[in-house]
Amino acid sequence: MSKLAARGRMINGMSVLVYEDSKALYSDAIRPLFGMLRNGNGHPTFGFATGGTFLPFYRAVVSEFGRNGDSFRKARAFNLDEYWRIDPKNPGSYAFYMHSNLYSHIDMGPGMAQLPRGNAEDPRAEARGYEGRIRKAGDVDLQYLGIGRNGHIGFNEPGTSFRSKTHLVKLSPRTREANSQYFSNGDMPRKALTMGINTILRSREIVLIATGEEKSAAVMKALQGPVSPRTPASALRLHSRATFMLDEEAASMLRR
Ligand code: GLP
Fold first, then answer.
1. What is each CA distance from 53 to 109, 238, 245, in whole angstroms?
2. Strand, helix or coil for residue 214
3. Partner of 24 for a Cys bridge, out of 5, 133, 239, 253, CB 3.0 to 4.6 A?
4. What angle do CA 43, 45, 245 make, to 5 degrees?
5. Which residue, among 193, 195, 175, has the nearest Cα to 85 in the 3D structure?
6. Are 157 and 232 in contact (CB under 8 A)?
7. Residues near ligand 1 with C-beta < 6 Å?
8. Is residue 177 annotated as a catalytic residue, yes or no?
């Protein structure tokens, strides 16, 4: 990652990069992904995230793909989460988000990009099946994460066990409020399927991106508060290859 654009430091064993310029943040964030496409193990498995934070990320991926012609044909991807009881054609669904922001622009093979199926008949069977498919693929090589204002990762809300696997969750009122902007006329789902914290921690490398002042308290708790299910993102301190990439605003509450 470029040393000039970011100030780097270790906080409680976690590598933290703070960027003045968000363009530099996103161009560094896509670097390990293209590194794996170019020379990694040849068949990388990516873990993808959604949300507003990742819109500039996918724009950067698509533009780099257009420039260099690197192929995703040998890659595989699993998304972190999906609402439950949602049709993939619903513009608020993460399936729709991934298709319109990434998959319709790159050459990933059919069936190689998966999300939990938000329209599955039995969500518990879907959660078990999804976890099984991730394990069968040999777990995720490079997992991207955002962070919720309450410190959630994926849809693992405060209180979720660090041993959790893919499961069905009831969304907290705070999360529903934050995400209701993506749904018209109050059709915001109440539940979601998400990779668990254990699923995430099994990834070989993790990059968490947070931007904006509204993430600063969650970032501070994750890095400098207790490692506790009360702040799900604090679990990343148990991982040996996790990096936080932050803009100045998201880093603004970190103590020296
Ligand atoms: C959502 C998603 C998370 C995402 C987070 C932040 O609820 N389930 O995976 O990282 O909340 O989203 P945003 O980037 O829009 O703030």
1. 25, 24, 11
2. helix
3. 5
4. 125
5. 193
6. yes
7. 49-53, 80-81, 146-148, 154-155, 175, 179
8. no
